[in-house]
Every structure is written in structure tokens, then in C-alpha cells.
Design goal:
single chain; At1g16640 B3 domain; alpha+beta
Amino acid sequence: MTDPLLQLIETMSGFGATRFYAKQLAANDNSKNQVYLGGGFGALNIIPHGDIQDDASHVAGSVRDRAKSPVNFFWVNSGSPELAPDAQLILYPKYPEVRMSGFLRGTKKGPNALMTSRDEGRVLILGICEDGRVLGDVRAHDDPLANRLFDLAGSLSTSGVFLELTQLRSGVQDTRAALLAALKNIYDEEWIASSKIGKSGQPEPYSARNGGGYTLEAKLGISPNGYAEPDYLGWELKQYGVRDFEKYLAKSPVTLMTPEPTGGFYRDAGVEAFLRRFGYPDKSGKEGRINFGGVYTNIKGHHPDTGLALRLKGFDAANGKIEDLDGSIVLVDKDGEPGATWSFRDIMAHWNRKHAKAAYVPSIMKSPPPFYRYGGVVQLCEETDVLLLLKAIAAGSAYYDPGIKMEKADSAKPLIKRRSQFRIKHSGLSALYRNFEEVSL
């Protein structure tokens, strides 16, 4: 007998979906009350969406009581995708939580009866496409697909309120166990020659010193691409260098994101003016070079070289909630003027590109020629949320670590290099995920 769940996944796959999720709908999950997608903002890492904007139609208290973000959503119940033009995510910072609404307006073949219902046991299936489209299908409680999902539910992995279905296409139900088994095989190989999957799709020797990640991907059969982080059964793979396999101390901090400032003097006057005002002459004596570096944390004062300090505006650190969606991470001078700002909306946009699941694999390199050995203790991280990032910044564990510079500063055409990055010590990673586990292979 044909599996109705797998049949729908294959149909969605034919329309371009590559990741698949299910949500068992509660009575309040309907067009009147919106569909609840979970506490916090973790759902934003699963469902692609557009810019986050104030919801001007909401009048309770303030227009900033909630925000909205469009979703390029299509129903496939009728066989071919039909756009739901008003579908959107609604963000409620006060609680905090995310809901979806507007998914029936403007549709001719939308599942009105099921999505206006309060029936228990309905199921919503989502297919996520690489181009940002979201495909949806809903079934009644007595539909064979709903019964099949109910039978599988106890054995499926979860991400927040979602059951993960992607692995069903490969016949793998427990992606965690499959990932650990693959990494155990790599661990058992010990020293592995550095390689990278080439244009032919086959591993090729790789001699540069940054081959730890490429070699791991090659062993797992992952082809590098410019669109996303390496992915294995839905897990983002992150390799990091360590000095030994006893203490597993990372050689360098983790770069979390590299967003350019969205406001302040940096944006208003330009990078050159920012460097001339807040930068400092190169400390090694290089002529005509102005630097802007240092470590900036929310718990430290103004940096002695630049006169700027990192602060958060509009975030309640004690409760882990955004108080004002117009808030920001800001570098302020001693007069309180903003040298550079990153709006919460922009930070959300960067953070929401991250996978909901990540595996960190330690490695040691020896050369020449380069060989890599991968450690027997890996870190499995699940369910990240931009609110956890902001909380880590508030606590000082995540920090701003720029490397902005201007060369030929005394010439008519100075050369400027931008590098704004937020980082965290590897030991602080656990604060960025709701579930963090170290597993011995």
C-alpha cells in the first residue's frame, strides 16, 4: 500500500521543496485564532519569510506590540500550488511567540473548511523550498495521512512544535542516530588526507590549510556550495580546530554572523568618516593605516582606543524579551551618541538563516601534506532563537569583534576593508540553543 505521507512529500518535492515538517493542529489553530508556531522566535529559523515590519493594523497599546513578516505561501491541496497572497507570520514579543495568519485570504481553492474548523487531530504539512517558497497541505483527523503521521509521531525528531519529516525520503527516521553513526566511522578512520569535493562530484586533494571542513564534507558526501552551510540529514555541519583530544579546547572563537551596521554615524557619514573619527593609527607602525578593532561587550566600559561601548536598547535581559522592536545593538560614544547600530530586525534577518540543528565536530591537523583527524566527542545543538543570541550579548558572552581598516588613508583614494563580526567563545555555544548535548562517539 502506498504511504500517503511519503506520497505527499514526493509531490511537494516535485514542486521544489527540500525540507518537510508537520504540525498537529490544536482547536485554536485556525483562521480566526491564527496557527501557533511556538514560543520564542525559533520558528523563524524554519519558515522562510520577508522583512519584519510593525503591524500597523494592530491597535492594542502600540503598533510595536507585535510585528508581521510576509510568507511566500502556497496551498497544494488542490494538486497544483495556489498562492495565499496574504499569508504572514505574526511576532508577539510580549509573550514571546510566533503565529501564522492570512493563509486563506485571496485563495480560491484553499482548505477553508479545515482551516476554519476547531477539530482536534488535523495535521498541517509544510514543504520548504530553497527559493523561500513554503508549500502547505492540511488533512482532517480521519485522513489516512493523519493516521500515518500519528503512528510515526513518537519516532520522529522534533524542532519546537514541528515534527521533522525530511528524513522519511531517505528512509531514515532517526537523523541524530544516523549522523552519529557517520561521524563514528570518520572518527574510526583516524588520519584522513585533506580533500574537497570537486566539480566532478568526487573528492580531490586539497592543500590549503583551511581544509578541515572540506575534508569532513567530502567524507560525508556533501558538495560545497555558495547558498547554505553544509547540511547532512538536516544537520548543519561545523568543524572546529582543537589542540588535543583530551580537553577539546577550541583554538579560536566561533564567528556567529557578519552584519554591516544599519544605522548610526557609520551609516550616516560613511565608513571612511567613521574610521577617521573612531579609528586609531596602526599599532605596528604601518604608514597611512587606520584601524578599528578591539572586543566590545555589553558589560564593559568604553574602549580605550576608540571611545565606543557596546549596549542593547529595547531588550529585557532578565526576561529574555524584546521590549521594543525598534530597538538595536548599538556602539555609543561617551556622550551617548550612536557610532554604529544594528537594528533588531536586521539581526533577526541574519540569525534566521541559521539551521535549527547544528553539529560541531572537533579536528586536529598535521602537515605537510595536510591530514585531519576528527575527535570522538561532538556537540549537538538544537533549536536556536534570536532571543537567545540577544540574551548572550546582554550577558557579555557574545561580543562584537570588528576588523575594519583603511589603508592609504593620506591619499586621495584610500582603501577600506569592512569586517563587522559578532563572536562567542566556543565554550559559550550552549547558551545559543535550547538543547545542547555533548556526545561521545
